[in-house]
Amino acid sequence: MRKRPTAATPAALIVIALWAPYVVLNTLFPGPLPTYGLGLLIALVALGLLWSAGVSPRACFLAVAPPSRQGLVLLALLSAFIPAVLLLGRGQPFNWLEDLVYTPASALGQELYFRSALLVALGMAWRRGDVRIAPGGQALAFALWHARAFRVAPLAPAVGVLVVTFVAGLLWGMEVRRDRTVLYAVLQHALFLAIQ
Questions:
Q1: Which residue ranges make up each domain of the chain?
Q2: What is the pTM of this model?
């Protein structure tokens, strides 16, 4: 098993820089194929860069592991958003293409980039400082990735989207670090996308 590098590498810095084209892509071309397909490609490129720098897939949380008690609490906290979305009338009817193809692809791409690649890259970049900042950093990047909400919604709901996605990104980041797997974040994220 390869060891995780101890200092920020050029690969980690490139992974962090990939956030900018990912945001532009989601903001300017929010359709399923460009955003979800190319977003997944960006996530795979980011992971490939980390792997080429000596970061193991396991260090990128690409493993299957049972959830911890603390991880289950974090996932349960996130599940509180589901009834809120349904009570606000934001639920969507079933659409097989959207719910069975685009939704899982989007959830997978976002989780692989934000929680598997960016979280690790930020941890490497802040190695000399406080690595506990990394979950907050990736959560902020995840929230700002949703900035297209300002193009499609009034100000207050758009700000609400950013707040909710920041909290979700923070809790998913904490859960992924705690349980050492991105699996549960991908599954829960796909569920959220399917019902909203």
A1: 10-195
A2: 0.88
